[in-house]
Amino acid sequence: MESDNGAFMEKFTLPPSSSSGDLPLSGLTFAVKDIFDMEGLVTGFGNPDWARTHTKANSTAPAVLALLRAGATCVGKTIMDEMAYSINGENIHYGTPKNPCAADRIPGGSSSGSAVAVGANIVDLSLGTDTGGSVRVPAAFCKIYGIRPSHGVVSVDGVVPMAQSFDTVGWFARDPSILKRVGNVLLPPLDPHLVSPSPVIIAEDCFKLLNIPIDRVKQILVKSVEKIFGGQVLKYMDLGDYVEENVSSLKHFMGQGGDTKEYSIPSLVALSSAMRILQRHEFKINHGKWVSSIKPNLGPGLKERIWEAVFSNDDKIDICHSIKTELRMALTSLLGDAGILAIPTVPGPPPKLQTQPSTLETFRARAFSLLSIAGVSGFCQVSIPLGLYDGLPVSVSLLAKHGSDMFLLNLVETLCETLKEHMLNIDATVNSNL
Q: Which stretches make up the Amidase domain (predicted)?
């Protein structure tokens, strides 16, 4: 397993459904997060007690079948965070997959093994799930591309639910063209009327959440957009102010959970609070009875979050649903049919392995402020690697309105070569100073 960066729960070869060489994913290999059902195998959900108390799956998840029918070969199931309830990627039972960019740093979770398998060049692509950030975070930490599709557009049948209001099936690739090829298999077709983005909104306040030089990260994207689409499409704004003004139900969560000592965006802190409350509520409905009866062995930090969910009350759930509706309407109005929103994927490079949860708290709070934008609105989001800062991976994310997934993937592919020009410059500049 060491040669595979510890990414896999089990390895096997499951050939494509057809031997035809002209299928869209012919010749590509993929791995599957251990949250997807695969016929004849137990879906482990990241925890040995779960695996012990569940039987083999009778059928294979539609998303996995779609890739096999498209010509790809499955080579195994990958390690994940227990019960999909973390964005770190550390698993005390099965081991923590080794981040291929930085061995002393966390790989990000909960789709940690799937991201590492791609980042370490073991497979061409992999399937994960994203509820609170479980594709976007490991994609950012492992310097690869990752997509959280629009909520509800890719089937989650045959996937162990975490929280249905947010659960999505996402995927990883090292190359945006492969990311798009998978999209052509799993997503609805592209709207032919969507050709180029307008506007491209740079969320200035969100970039201030970064713990690395803001302008250096922002300018990579800005220069690439200017070169291809012209500077006239760019627009700059503070997203938090817009959200506060247009999502009235957020007032019930304002002033909760913010650290006045650190820079934060109050409306996005409130948004992430609402997301976590609804997530806990749905997790409790899905798995509370199992957790209470089995009392599974759970890792530190994660154990506390899972039991907090089991004992959570049902206050403000209706308000949380109202916030989801209001945010989607507000962002749809902001972006129109072809608008794009640019934000950092995460607040900075991956933290070190086994960092104390209390030390990570500011990072987590900032991360969820960013992750909750697509999570609560249901919009699609692609995390794009931008290179290295201090030898550690840096990324940015583009979001588009619900249902514009293929438009977004086309845009990412179009920007790729220009972004690479600036990425190489960044890497060269940073590495020369090491």
A: 22-175
